[in-house]
Amino acid sequence: MTQKFDVVVIGAGPGGYVAAIKAAQLGLKTACIEKYQDKEGKVALGGTCLNVGCIPSKALLDSSWKYYEAKEGFAIHGIEAKGVSIDVPAMVARKSNIVKNLTGGVSTLFKANGVTLLEGHGKLLAGKQIEVTGLDGKTQLVQAENVIIASGSKPIDIPPAPVDQDVIVDSTGALEFQSVPKSLGVIGAGVIGLELGSVWARLGAEVTVIEAQDKFLPAADEQIAKEAMKTFTKQGLKIRLGARLTASEVKKKQVTVSFTDADGEQKMTFDKLIVAVGRRPVTTDLLAADSGVTLDERGFIYVDDQCATSVPGVYAVGDVVRGAMLAHKASEEGVMVAERIAGHKAQMNYDLIPSVIYTHPEIAWVGKTEQQLKAEGVAVNVGTFPFAASGRAMAANDTGGMVKVIADANTDRVLGVHVIGPSAAELVQQGAIGMEFGTSAEDLGMMVFSHPTLSEALHEAALAVNGGAIHIANRKKR
C-alpha cells in the first residue's frame, strides 16, 4: 500500500531537514528522504553542511587557529608555551565527533516533531509520486500532496585534476588528512579553498592557491578584498591569480600541476592537491522524464521567487536552485516553502543574505558592495573604522581589518555592511538586522553600543558615513 503524506521532502540537508521540521510543526504529515551514509554505513542527516562542509571545516579552522595562536601568539600575553605540537588524528577525530553529535541531533528533532524518515534515494515521478529506493535496493512508492526537493550540491570535478581522495582531493577529502602535508596546492581561491588552505597553512604546510580569475574575491567589496589579499599573503598563503590549470600528474605520492599565467607555462609539485573550484546541483536520477519539473541551462531546478517549480505543489530549495549556495539561505527557503504550503503568505528577502568566509581574520558582508552601487549609478557615502583603533581588539591582540558601512548619499539608508576582522560574521549580522528594518547610518550612530566591544567598530563606521566618528579622524568632505 502506498504511503501518503501532506509533504515529502527529498534531502535532509539544511534546506530539507529544516523544511521537514517546519512543515511538521505546522500540522502537516511529513516525510523526509535521505540516502547519505556515514563511514559506518548508517544514514546520516544534515547534508553536506553538517557532514562534510560548514561544520567540520569550522571545527578544523578553530583547532588550527588555537594551535597557531599557542605557537605564535601567546608570548605577547606573557604566556610561555614551549614545545607546542599538533596531533592531527586527534584534531580530525574531534571534528568527526562534533559531526556525529549534530547529525544525531537532527534525527532526534525528527522524532520530536513527528517527521517520518525514509532511508534511500528519492526520485520524483509524475503526479507527485516519489519512488524511494532503499539502501537494500528495494523500491516503494510514496504519494505526496506537496513535494520539496532539497537535493543539494556536490563539488565540481575538473578534467585536468581528477580527484582520487588520496593525493588529489576535493573539499571532503581535505577534511580527512591524517598528517600535515609539507606542500599543499589549492585549486580555487573561493570560500572553500581559502578556508581549507588556511587550516593546513596554520599547521605548517606551504600552501599555494591557484586561481583562474584575475580578481581576488570578486564577490566581496574591493576594499575588503584588497585587505584580505594583503593579510593572507602576510600569513604565508601564496595566491597565484590569473592562473589556469592545464594538467596534473601523480607520481610517487606527489602531484605535479601545470598551469598558465601571465608568465607563461608553469609547473609546481605538491604532496597534496585540493580541488575547490565550486559546486554543482545534484539532479542525477532525481526527476523522471514526465515529472514536469524543468531545469535551467546551468542544471539548476527552475523556481520562482517563492521556490515553486513549474509543477503546482512541487517546490525546490537550497543549492539545487538559483542563488547563493549557502546553508542559511537553504534553511530560510525551506521555512518559507513550508509556511506557504500551510497557507501563510511567507516571503524571503534575498537582498539581505549574509556571506561569510571563516578564515582568520573573518570576512563577511551583507547588502551591496561599493563597486556594485557605483555601477548602478547610486551616489553613496562610505564610513570605515579600523580594528587597530578598537580598545577591545587591542586587548585581544586581534587588530587587523576594518568595518565598512555604505549608505545612500541622498537618503542615508544603509545599503551594505562589509567587515574583515575579528567576529566579522557577528558584526555583519548586526548590520543585517538594522538593514532589514530600513536603518539609516544615523540610526546606527545614535544607538548606544556597550564599551569596550568589537561592535563599537560598527557604531563608529556608521558615524563615519556622515563625518561624525569619535575615535578616528574623519575624512574632510570635499
UniProtKB/TrEMBL annotation:
Q: Which keywords appear in this protein's UniProt record, sorted alphabetically?
A: Cytoplasm, Disulfide bond, FAD, Flavoprotein, NAD, Oxidoreductase, Redox-active center
Q: What is its EC number?
A: 1.8.1.4
Q: Where's it found, cell-wise?
A: Cytoplasm
What Pfam families does the record tag this protein with? Answer: Pyr_redox_2, Pyr_redox_dim
FAD/NAD(P)-binding domain residues are: 5-334
Instruction: Classify the main location.
Output: cytoplasm
InterPro entries associated with the record: Class-I_Pyr_Nuc-Dis_Oxidored (IPR050151), FAD/NAD-bd_sf (IPR036188), FAD/NAD-binding_dom (IPR023753), FAD/NAD-linked_Rdtase_dimer_sf (IPR016156), Lipoamide_DH (IPR006258), Pyr_nuc-diS_OxRdtase (IPR001100), Pyr_nucl-diS_OxRdtase_dimer (IPR004099), Pyr_OxRdtase_I_AS (IPR012999)
State the reactions this protein catalyses: N(6)-[(R)-dihydrolipoyl]-L-lysyl-[protein] + NAD(+) = N(6)-[(R)-lipoyl]-L-lysyl-[protein] + NADH + H(+)
Report domain Pyridine nucleotide-disulphide oxidoreductase dimerisation positions.
Answer: 353-462
Which cofactor is essential here? FAD
* Enzyme class, broadest EC rank: oxidoreductase
Q: How is the cofactor bound?
A: Binds 1 FAD per subunit.
Family statement drawn from the similarity comment of this UniProt entry: Belongs to the class-I pyridine nucleotide-disulfide oxidoreductase family.
More details? The active site is a redox-active disulfide bond.
Assembly and interaction partners: Homodimer.
- Name of the protein in question: Dihydrolipoyl dehydrogenase
Origin species, per record, is Pseudomonas cuatrocienegasensis
